Predict the structure of Molybdate/tungstate import ATP-binding protein WtpC.
Amino acid sequence: MMLELDSLTHRYGTESAVDDASFGVGEGELVALLGPSGCGKTTIVQAVAGHVRPTAGRVKLRGADVTDSPPESRGISVVFQQSTLYPHMTVAENVAYGLKARGVESNRRADVVSEYLELVDLREQRDAYPSELSGGQRRRVELARAVAPEPDVLLLDEPLSALDRSLRERLRDEIARIQRETGVTTLFVTHDQEEAMALADRLVVMDDGSVAGTGEPRPLYESPPTPFVASFLGRSNELSATVTRQAPLTLTVGGQEVVLSDSRADVSTGSAVSCHVRPENLTLGSVSTLSSDAPAVSVPGTVTRVADMGRRYDVTVRLESEEAVIVERTEMPPATGESVSVGLLEADLTIFGAGRSDRLGV
Ligand code: ATP
């Protein structure tokens, strides 16, 4: 691991911001640190950069403990949400300033500046001042300034959140390209799960100061370890269920019995569990096609809302259990008020125990 956080904990006075967070970023890897506002992402960035001394735990770079080292000795570059370019310096001077701060000799600086302005496609703007650039161009200058000194780790703290959506998507691809071309180990902080999934080799999902799950985007999306990860990474329908048999594990979901292929001795009959299923994994059929021996479980309900999202419809169905689910559908949806059956496959169900953090089988 190039960067390691070992049981990092930080409190501001009595307020806990980060609680026993451990994860690593491998050499050349791009890891997204993802979580809602206030979950402790910036505090982690500050602790890694050396601007905050953690209350407990260690920060390691290339295996060496740097928890007590000053920021300038760590070989870490940070790009923040807000611009930190010097307005009185040109683009080239801003990039060169970062190199000077890292001790790159003056006779090499001009070449390195040109190389990195080329990388971010800003060669022609080298003599412009920040005020003469667009928001996207200013972000690219900051990226060039951050990667030109070839840091061991690049920290990007919500670098795109101040930009509009289309620019954000274009710059996201730019960041992916620059990271691939330079191979710089990168921790990318964001609250935007789509941005994180589009960019990262691996995700670290934070919930209220703690690491709630880590993994490659697709496995984490498909097998979330906690209900929080299930609903923060994309959308998830939560259905309450009751265990009616232990072996094979059998549940009642929306009034229908679901027999699962595994057995669990540690959930007792009669205990409450919650089932999560993605809107795109639910199907809709008319009640007349409901067959008791179909492999999928079919739960009857009534359509209460149809939202036309352009590329898809979001169909809200109220089940007989009074719970509502959203079903994604690309074909013509049924009308509001229609009776339907919602079909789901065992493989698409993620089941959590009553403790809410214990994933049961499946
Ligand atoms: P955001 O995306 O909104 O910046 P975040 O995930 O980066 O959020 P942090 O900024 O690390 O989260 O904040 C974590 C918690 O610590 C929050 O409850 C916040 O109010 C608190 N906090 C952060 N900085 C300070 C500070 N300097 N003094 C006191 N409390 C702080």
